[in-house]
Sequence to fold (246 residues):
Amino acid sequence: MKQSRLLPTIKQALPLVVATLLMAITSASNAAEQTEDTKDSQVNKPLAVRPAIRYKAPLLDDSPEAVSQSAQSMEGKATVLQVLAPNHTGLTVQPQPTLYWHASTPTAVRFSIAVIEKHGTKPLLQVDIKKAAGIQQLDLSKHGLSLKPELSYQWSITTVMDKNSQSAATIASGFIERIEPGEGLSNRIKNSQGKELVYVYAIEGIWYDALETISTMIDKSPEDQSLAAIRKSLLEQVDLNIATEN
Fold:
């Protein structure tokens, strides 16, 4: 008798159980859709709204003080040279990275790089560069020079003056050191590309490779203003403010 009395009660409860399960499934589905929508909205957000790529300076001992910019009057015009380097020793994982600088006016410069030794510096390379303005670059691989790990190097840009010029040369210099990444970082670099690779380099404090990666992307897609904005942001994070992105 008790069993027969329970059956109607169970039958009456079933619709409520089913409805509760359907509500739970619907809520879970909606939550999943909202998560995907959130991801999509982050991807489609303008660069100014999305989380910015941040450069995290490495912890280094005895970092030399880099001269990030120098200005000197030349032929009646103020020429500003800026090495696109931080005010501390910047890192690279490449034996032959590309180094960048900015000239405010068309200027002939001499690129120099030297290894820092106990009793001074040892020059390794000097290259004269034709007059140009804006962001310029020198690829060490094109000059047969490779950086050795755990050595510090100083690189400089100096204006090439005419023999009759009475103006002093303008000099800007930066410091670079090559490191060998561990297995984890090597895998992250290997498995990343584009903006994600820029992020990996920047957050790991590998300045020169972050800059080279974004600059290469800009060269391939000069019309993409989001790329120029990323490079501008990186430069501003190390107190480099340049007039143009050429």
